[in-house]
Design a protein that fits this description.
Protein-Tyrosine Phosphatase, Chain A; 9 helices; 46% helix; globular
Amino acid sequence: MKKPRSSVDWDGAVNAWHVAGDVYRMGRREWVTEAGWRQMYDDGVRTVIDLRNPAEARRRDTDPVVGGAAWSGMVLVSAPTEEPGDPRFTALTGPYLNDPAHYSENARLFPDKLVGVFRELAAASPRGGVLLHCAAGRDRSGLVAAMVQDLAEAPDADIADSYRRAAGGINERYRTHGPPHDRERYVEEAELAPLLEQRGLAVVEFVRELDTRAFLLRHGLSPAELDAVLSLCGTGVSR
């Protein structure tokens, strides 16, 4: 497995990281400038998978103005990880997923949604690299990234560190730019460090209990699709 790099420096991208193989993750794509899209393309990204619910995909006044030509040569795909407003889920999470403690419930309630994400990863594999993004680049992308790392046979420490980097990255964004709404806040280091330690371990616990290969196959991903995902992750084929 190719060891994940640290942060990815695409202009305007927030909380952008290498996950495994040819898979990357970040926060909202609307933060990326035209120059950043060109850099993304130069790094081999050919598919962008939006894990948000469709109503979230909109430009804000503070976002850069970017023409559609900026992502020419890339495929933009919508593949939400959840059913928005499902009362079984929101009773646990509130309006959106924001804690790895709830990843297992996301997988239990919406297995078809997660299989849909991996089906898009399989379809994207022949085109080149893939970027996964949600809003903050923390939990929905964190859930899928952990599953990708599990398929890529990443050790526990790398999976935990991947979550901690992303959660710390968006927290730094809140320090410099302020949180986007009153459900988020900047967390000072004394509080953040033990929180990240605990949540990193929770991500590892989730993905090891899930067994990503078995989960995906059990819920409808074909062996050929799994092999395509594994190739994208730099692993090879299923055994």
